[in-house]
């Protein structure tokens, strides 16, 4: 449904299976089970699907510019892609999860020196401080990229609200709508 929203806004959308048929269960617990699941998907396993297959396929099918979005774990994957591919012009990170870098034995901050794509962060109140407006990673990107880096925090929402929030709760429904509005505006601005 989330990919459909971008398609309805006029974007050509590709939704690759980066988990090779093994997504994290919707009812999974974010404990050692999640850590072990993450370790099954190092960038050496997911990166080629993005850089060597998805981007060339999109370009061969008429894409004039490339934007990416990642939710939670997807922040880690899209950050890696933005750092290695100049073809990605914009990235939207929805309730990003910086701890994935540590889980996989990587440092996040050095990526701020490698990224040239515009970046939009949509964290929630409980998300890692490094990607919020006063956070170290956000400020490192902002220093290099200026107005190409934006942040809109959803302080009252919970991590995962866009992907699996309860839309029967009016404030969550409104926050989800706002997240998509900001994402689409950002892509229209930078793509």
3D architecture notes:
The protein has helices spanning 2-8, 32-39, 43-60, 73-84, 99-103, 136-145, 161-164, 170-190; strands spanning 66-71, 88-94, 118-122, 149-151. It has 191 residues and is α/β, with parallel strands linked by helices. Strands 1-2-3-4 form a 4-stranded parallel beta sheet, sandwiched between helices. α6 links the parallel β3 and β4 (149-151). α3 packs across α4. The radius of gyration is 16 Å and the shape is globular. The mean pLDDT is 93.
- Total E-strand runs: 4
Strand order of the largest sheet: 1-2-3-4
* Cα shape: globular
Report, as a whole number of angstroms, the end-to-end distance: 22 Å
Determine the fraction of residues in helical runs and give it as a percent range: 40-55%
Provide a count of the helices: 8
Q: How much β-strand is present in the residues?
A: 5-15%
The overall pLDDT, averaged over residues, is 93
Biggest β-sheet strands, sense, barrel: 4 strands, parallel
Radius of gyration: 16 Å
> Helix and strand succession?
HHHEHEHEHEHH
Helix vs. strand class: alpha/beta
- Contiguous low-pLDDT stretches (5 residues minimum) are none
* Oligomer description: single chain
Notable features of this structure?
191 residues, alpha/beta, globular
């Amino acid at each position: 449904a989330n990919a459909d929203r971008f398609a309805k806004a006029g974007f050509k959308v590709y939704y690759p299976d980066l988990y090779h048929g093994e997504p994290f269960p919707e009812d999974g617990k974010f404990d050692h089970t999640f850590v072990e699941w993450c370790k099954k998907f190092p960038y050496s396993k997911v990166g080629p699907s993005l850089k060597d297959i998805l981007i060339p396929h999109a370009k061969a099918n008429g894409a004039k510019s490339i934007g990416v979005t990642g939710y939670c774990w997807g922040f880690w994957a899209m950050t890696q892609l933005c750092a290695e591919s100049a073809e990605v012009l914009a990235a939207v990170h929805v309730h990003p999860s910086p701890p994935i870098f540590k889980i996989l034995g990587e440092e996040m901050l050095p990526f701020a020196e490698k990224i040239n794509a515009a970046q939009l962060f949509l964290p929630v109140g409980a998300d890692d401080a490094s990607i919020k407006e006063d956070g170290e990673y956000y400020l490192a990107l902002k220093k290099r990229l200026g107005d190409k880096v934006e942040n809109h925090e959803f302080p009252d929402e919970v991590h995962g609200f866009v992907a699996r929030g309860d839309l029967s709760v009016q404030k969550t429904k409104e926050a989800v709508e706002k997240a998509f509005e900001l994402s689409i505006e950002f892509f229209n601005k930078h793509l």
